[in-house]
Amino acid sequence: MPKRTAQPDPAPVQGRGSALLFLDKEGRWFHEGVEITHGRTRLLFSKNIRRDPAGKYYVRVGPESAEVIVEDAPYTITSVTLQEEPHGPPRGYILHLNDETQEPLESGSLAVSEENVMYCRVKGGEERARFLRAAYYQICAKLQYDEADDRYWLPCSDRQITIHRDGASNR
Questions:
Q1: How far apart, in whole angstroms, are the C-alpha atoms of residue 58 and residue 48?
Q2: How many other C-beta atoms are found inside a 10 Å radius of the C-beta of residue 154?
Q3: Cβ atoms of residues 127 and 77 within 8 Å
Q4: Which of 27, 40, 53, 136 could form a disulfide with 131 if both were Cys (CB 3.0 to 4.6 A apart)?
C-alpha cells in the first residue's frame, strides 16, 4: 500500500482528472497526497517539469499536462563529481540532477540559505536546484574558509567559487 506522507495540501489544479501533483523539498513526487514510488514515473516527471511565463510549474507528457505544486526547488542535486587534477584543486564540479542530467557548477550560482540549505542555478541559470544531503556533504568536504573575508569558497584550478549567504544571488 502506498504510504502517505505529511505535506501541505496543494490547491486544486484545473485540468484533466484534477491530477494533484506535488514536488517536496527533498525531490519526492506525490499524487493526491500519496508518494509516487515508481522510479520510472518519478524520472518521467522530473525530466518533463517546466515553468510557464507566470512562474507556475507543470509536467507535460505528450498531449497531457498537470500543474505541479513545488515546495522548494524544481530540481535537486543528487551527487557531485569532482573533475580531478593530478596535483592541486579540481578543475571543476559536475552536478548530477534528479532528471539524470549533468551540468558543471557555475561560478556565482552557489548559495546557502539561513537554514544552511545549499542551492545553485541550473538549466542555463533559469532554474534553482536544491542540494540533497549526500551532494551537500560532497561539496562541504571541499569547502575552504577565508577568515579575513569571512567567506566560504570552493577551490578550482582556475578560480574560486564563492558561496553566497541567504541565497541573495540565487533567487
A1: 8
A2: 22
A3: no
A4: 136
Q: How far is CA 83 from CA 86, 121, 136, 153, in A?
A: 10, 19, 17, 17
Report d(CA 45, CA 59) in Å as an integer.
6
Residue with the three cell numbers 545553485:
120
**pLDDT tens, N- to C-terminus, the chain (171 residues):** 445 454 444 444 443 344 589 999 999 999 999 999 999 999 999 999 999 999 999 999 999 999 999 999 999 999 999 998 788 888 899 999 999 999 999 988 999 999 999 999 999 999 999 999 999 999 999 999 999 988 899 998 888 898 988 644 444
CA angle, 114 as apex, 70 and 130 as ends, to 5°? 35
Residue linked to cell 516527471: 45
The residue to which cell 507556475 is assigned: 56
End-to-end CA distance of the chain: 38
Burial environment of residue 106 by CB neighbours within 10 A (0 to 12, 13 to 18, 19 or more): middle
Listed in order, strand segments (DSSP E) in 84-126 are 92-97, 102-104, 111-112, 118-122
